[in-house]
Amino acid sequence: MDASSKALQRFEDALKYWNLSLDEVQRERFIRLTKLMLEWNEKINLTTITDPNLIAVEHYLDSVAPLAFKLISEDMAVIDVGTGAGFPGLPLAILCPKTIFTLVDATRKKVKYLQSVFFELGLTNVEVVWGRAEDLAKRKEFREGFDVAVARAFGAIDLVWECTLPFVKIGGISIAYKGPKVDEELAIGERTAPLVGGKLEFVHKFILPTSDFQRTLVVARKLSVTPPQFPRSPGIPEKRPLRSLTTSGFSEVQKGGNG
Ligand code: SAH
């Protein structure tokens, strides 16, 4: 067995803990994906993780975690905001061939890579869009057009919510992929969700099976229409995060003398 088949076996063993499995086509797609990503990674910066075993756990297994909690199902439309090298969107799209995935990134060369990958893997349920979330969320075809928005390694929770919830239909959810330390961030950020039409609903803390990596999925439900001023112009959600707009956020800033 070569290195990438062995790594894939590890991925499949771990998936069993979540009652998930791969068919032959899906297995081939993951093997091909690893190969393509490592090839392109020589030319453009896609991932710092290059060991196929770690790719299998830290990228693939981590990406599909929402399936363990039944957060994504068939016939949904899902948007991955800031997908980078296609995480979590690509592994989810391979596992859920009947779910439609829109992968968004602001970096053109990553989008070019993704276009070539979904073509080579023969994925028919993936669309790749180049652009900034702040701009795309204003477009009619994207705004409030998705059942689920996902974002991994995108930034603080209020930045995630401002850049994901405008894409989500009322009743849908935003899923933020986080590491183990989220409590402090949520204590400060939780009250910002209503500004963009959401409400923190659930925090799933878990360990990736067969590893000791701790992860958290932060789920916010879209309860009302996002006011049209959100998301603000490109860069502003990061520079002046939502928490600085809430009353106590302001006083914290003022106390700090920056306000
Ligand atoms: N989700 C991937 C990549 C995380 S790095 C992963 O978990 O591996 C963050 C990515 O978000 C980068 O690829 C960057 O180009 C993209 N990004 C940052 N701000 C963005 C924005 N406002 N709109 C769209 N993409 C953005």
What would your notes on this structure say?
The chain is of the alpha/beta class and 259 residues long. It contains 11 helices and 7 strands. The chain has helices at residues 3-16, 24-41, 52-63, 65-68, 89-95, 108-120, 133-136, 157-164, 183-189, 236-239, 247-255, and strands spanning 77-81, 100-105, 126-130, 146-152, 168-178, 198-207, 214-222. Strands 3-2-1-4-5-7-6 form a 7-stranded mixed sheet, sandwiched between helices. α1 (3-16) runs parallel beside α3 and α3 (52-63) crosses α5. The N and C termini lie far apart (60 Å). The structure holds S-adenosyl-L-homocysteine. S-adenosyl-L-homocysteine is lined by residues 82-85, 87, 104-107, 110, 132-134, 152-154, 163. The site of S-adenosyl-L-homocysteine has 17 residues, from β2 and α7.
